[in-house]
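During the no-cost extension, the postdoctoral fellow (Dr. R.K.) reprocessed legacy sequence entries with the updated structure-token encoder. One reprocessed record is reproduced below for audit purposes.
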Amino acid sequence: MRAALALARRGLGVVWPNPAVGCVIVKEGQVVGRGWTQPGGRPHAESEALRRAGPQAKGACAYVTLEPCNHYGQTPPCAQALLDAGVTRVVTGLEDPDPRTSGGGHERLRNGGVEVVTDVLRDEAMSVNAGFLSLLRSGRPRVTLKTATTLDGMIAARGGASQWITGPQARARGHVLRATHDAIMIGIGTALADAPSLSCRISGMEDRSPVRIIVDSKLRLPLTSTLVQTAREIPTWILTSVQGAAGDEYSDCGVKVMKIKAGSAGSIVMQAALEALGKEGVTRLLVEGGGTLAGSLLAADLIDDITWFRSNSVMGADGISAVAGYGISDPNQMKRFKRVGTMPVGVDMMERYERA
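Re-encoded structure tokens follow.
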């Protein structure tokens, strides 16, 4: 199952809105087939593993990270494919909460005489597909805030200069994060100040750049910006509260303009924004900045995870904070997270947190 989970992770960022699934087929102590969900969500992991196993799948055991699907879509049910191949035992990590399957895959297998074992390494299986589960349960993607700061939590100097607070190893790790998410989001302030490309620039992973999303309530992003000019190469979406025909010029450049509900101050309602992304099938969203956007998401209690790259430097009050104020007047009102991992990356430290 651990091998199947490792295979499943290969699909993160490229299989949405489908779950990232891994499958290992074992016969007489030997691996005879391996598969993982392919880009775009098809073929499924089980189909890939069965194709590679061929006739050796008969009488074998299949380890699958998620319950095999039980519905007809672009492909027949994977549960039936396992039955047709003659697999005699199936071990799964997690029942599929999708109502089209939700226990039906396990039932079909059992009715076909297959021994079924469930909930093996269930927590790890849930972690791999946390975004898919979030979309099904809450209608929005799982949100990871990624930030790179000084020891005292600053992301830039007062004038906005931020290159470079962290070292090359931490920046490279940040690009790997991009490659494993469906979409990456920034605010218009960051877009104007940094003119980022928001692409994945790791050798061999250039084609893993996620959808780029800019929260731009008043449509201030220049048409000459790199983000707009490369929108036909890397999908780019703008979330705005401006209604009517405004935004047509962006659409002409290949940018998808999404009109989102505005709050009383004219800013975008972030809950509505994430639900709109969920309707587009986004399961895993990486938020890279800046402080205003981070504060808005925290205020709405929409941050699920934090990946924090912390440098070995101190900037002091001359810097710009990683998180803008979000209405805290008492320590008891703070959003709290639990640390789930730390790892040195060059001279910096990467810390991972989950919602407490």
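The two ends are 27 Å apart (CA to CA). The mean pLDDT is 92. The remaining legacy entries will be reprocessed before the final report is submitted.
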